[in-house]
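Hi F.,

I've been meaning to write this up properly since the lab meeting, where we talked about keeping a consistent format for the predictions we share between groups. The idea is simple: the sequence comes first, exactly as it goes in, then the structure tokens exactly as they come out, then a line or two of notes. No screenshots and no reformatting. I'm using this chain as the first example so we have something concrete to point to.
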Amino acid sequence: MECLGVSSVQNLNDLSALLATQQDDDDDEDCKNVTACAQMGPGHIGPPPKKDKEVSAGHVKKNSKDIWREEEVAEGSQYDDLADPRPQPEYEIILKQSVGTEDLFLGLNRKDPSSMCCEALLVKIKLPDTKATDVVLDVKEKFLDLRTLKYKLGLHLPHPIHSDRGKAQFFSEREELEVTLLMKRPMDVINMQ
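Output, unedited:
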């Protein structure tokens, strides 16, 4: 790669001086024996990076005994167990909507095939060599926790749901659990009218 001409180096130096808010003398001492082309790089343009000692106001803790803020901990993290060797089963999340003939042929409810018009989440979980009595299922607003003798699944749901209005069905012939969860849609009153 060819070295830039003297005028180009001078232009970069002028641009760096214009954009820099302060210059570090340490860089100049380290680079005395290096040619002007090797000195310049993308890191020399603009203000120098902040030092590690500076702390932004967003990272200041209110209580000195707190390790983290409550909003930093994801819902369902209490179920994460790194020492548990059970594998995660295969699963699939499908969005569902209730569609009738008035929607399909007449378009009376203004429903379309988009995910915005879906009312429920269907979670299909494959559980080979599992009986329905072995399944322990716990559903929260944004988290699904499934435990069996052979598998564990901690699933963060893509949309908040009504945890008290769901239903689950185990199909022995397919060795599959289907969990249907009604989604919380607070803006449907506004969007669907």
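Notes:
Strands lie at 91-96, 120-126, 136-139, 143-147, 152-156, 167-171, 176-182.
The chain is about 20% helix and 20% strand.

If this format works for you, I'll send the rest the same way.

G.
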